[in-house]
Structures are given as structure tokens and as C-alpha cells.
Amino acid sequence: MSKFPLLSLSPLGPSDIQEQLDSEFECHLVGRDGSLEELLERVGGQVTALVTTGGRGAEAELIERLPKLQVIACYGVGVDAIDLVTAARHGAAVTNTPDVLTDDVADLAVFLLGALHRLIVRGDSWVRAGEWARSGGIPLGRCLRGRRAGILGLGRIGEATAQRLEAFGMEILYHKRSPLPDSNWSYLDSPVALAEQCDDLIVCCSGGSATHHLVDEKILNALGPESTLVNIARGSVVDETALVAALRAGGIGGAALDVFENEPEVPEALFDLDNVVLAPHIGSATWETRRAMGTLVLDNLRAHRDGRKLLTAVE
Ligand code: 8YV
């Protein structure tokens, strides 16, 4: 069988997954095999598949330079950075990696919220700096038990996050397009109403134009100084300028963030705030999950190459 030429914008997770991709396909990897521009000039006219990540995506200009493109395989669940309209116009199918990362991303939401309220990061710095012995303990934290978690976007990741937080004794409130038919979780019919009612707003919705700056100054005001924000979804969902202003002015009580508007840039105005926990977009970043995501990318590419139905096509 002739090898299937593909352009990959990023290596796939654990190295054995990338080795598998290299052995089964004619993989042209940006960085390793040349710059994007060099590879586009060299093989852009032949490649039939593009491998990208949730963060990198594929813009219209790139898709348009791949005239034989048939499939875009995204190593990530979020496809908001892929120009789906242009892909469809070019007849290119898009696949992503849902389900396999749900648990890790939901776990991280809980860990971030716990780290924020129990002052884990602050305590770590305190110990390392010798302040425990010098100055005594750090201030008291807050327990999760009894707080109201507001889940903004109750899809797979939102639901898994809610289940975990419920196990910590939190009350679950949520907003999505329509309420769940049978649930003891409380439905709020707007993001503002959710922000007003909850203690911790957990952003779990998809990115993209429909949710761009959904969490704006109005929502942050509705949260108020006793409440916090956790974002494990996409940086674009939160108006970062408004968030920084609210945090600096004490307009909200704190934030734990895994995603940012212009990754890997993070506003320096957050660095000296004690009530902020920052993570470098690690929601799915475990060996186990990255292996499962890489395997799913491979399986989708194999299915396409062999003329079988794609496993996880984005509809
Ligand atoms: C990954 C993600 O960080 O799934 C997504 O949409 O943002 C993350 O899981 C990314 O796609 C892999 O680099």
C-alpha cells in the first residue's frame, strides 16, 4: 500500500505514537522536517491529511494551500481554531479526540479549584521560601463543601466536572442551552443568572465565535468579591482584560486558569496576585490521555486511508 502523505503541525504525544505515525504514513512534521513554509512549498500540493492540535487549529489560508486535502485530524477535542467552513468547502472532513480526555480535564478543574481555595500553591511557595519556620502558617483557606459550583456549559467535560464537585459536597448549578430532563442539579437560564447564584463559576463550554467573551465584565460583576472563576475550556470565552481588572480591583475573589486568550502569553498583571492559580494549558496533559488522544488521531487517519468510516468525525 502506498504511504499516505500528511502534514503534521505538531508531534503526537508520547514518542511511540509519533513513531507509529511515521512508520505508517509519509509524515512531514513541521519543525523536524522543515519550517511550515518550506513544507508547504515542498509537499503542500500532495498532502491529503493535516494533523493539528486544538490550540493550533487550521486557518483558511493554510487549508487553501493544501489543494488535495481530504481530512484534518485534530489532536484535541476543541476544533474552534479550525476554519470548519473552509474545510467543508474544500471537502475535507475534520476529526477530533472527544471522550478520551474528559476525565483528565474534569479532574484538573477540581484540582485547580481545590488549589485555589486551600491555598496549595501559596503554601508551597511559603514553605520553599522558609516562611513557615520564620513567620508561621499561611492564612486559612475555604472548604469546597457547601459552596455552589456554577457549571457554564454542561457538555461531557462540564458533566464530569459537576459529578466530581458533587462528591466534594458542592451544590451544582448549571447553564446550557436547555435544562436536563431529570436532574437534581439546578438549571439557570442565563450565564448572568448562573454567575449571580454560584460561588465558583467553572467555564466548561466550547470556544469559538458563539462563546467569545461570554464571561465579560457584567458576568464578573455578577460573580462578585466572594466568588471565583475557574477556566479549563478556552481562553477566548473570558474577556481577559476585564478579568485582570476585576482581580486587581477585588471585584471577584480569585481565579484558577488553565487557558488564556493568547497562549502561551499570560498577563503579567496576574503574577503577583495571591488569589490566582495559573496552569500552562495542561487539561489533557497526562501520559495516559495523550497516548489515548494520539491513538485516536492515528485510528482516524487509518480509517480514512483504508476507506472506512471515521471514528470521531466533527459533524
Ligand atoms: C490539548 C485541548 O492541549 O482538547 C483540546 O481541545 O485544548 C487540549 O486537550 C491540545 O489540543 C493538545 O495540544
- What is the β-strand count? 12
Are there runs of 5+ residues with pLDDT below 50, and where?
Answer: none
> What does the largest sheet look like?
7 strands, parallel
CATH structural architecture of the largest domain:
3-Layer(aba) Sandwich
> What hetero molecules are bound to the protein chains?
2-keto-D-gluconic acid
CATH superfamily of the largest domain: NAD(P)-binding Rossmann-like Domain
Summarize the helices and strands and which ones pair or pack.
Elements: E1 5-8, H1 15-24, E2 26-29, H2 36-43, E3 49-53, H3 60-64, E4 71-75, H4 84-89, E5 93-95, H5 102-117, H6 120-128, H7 131-135, E6 148-152, H8 156-167, E7 171-175, E8 186-187, H9 191-197, E9 200-203, H10 217-223, E10 228-231, H11 240-249, E11 254-257, E12 276-278, H12 287-305
Parallel strand pairs: 1-2, 1-3, 3-4, 4-5, 6-7, 6-9, 7-8, 9-10, 10-11, 11-12
Helix pairs in contact: 1-12, 5-8, 9-10
The structure holds 2-keto-D-gluconic acid.
2-keto-D-gluconic acid (8YV) is lined by residues 53-55, 75-78, 101, 281, 283-284.
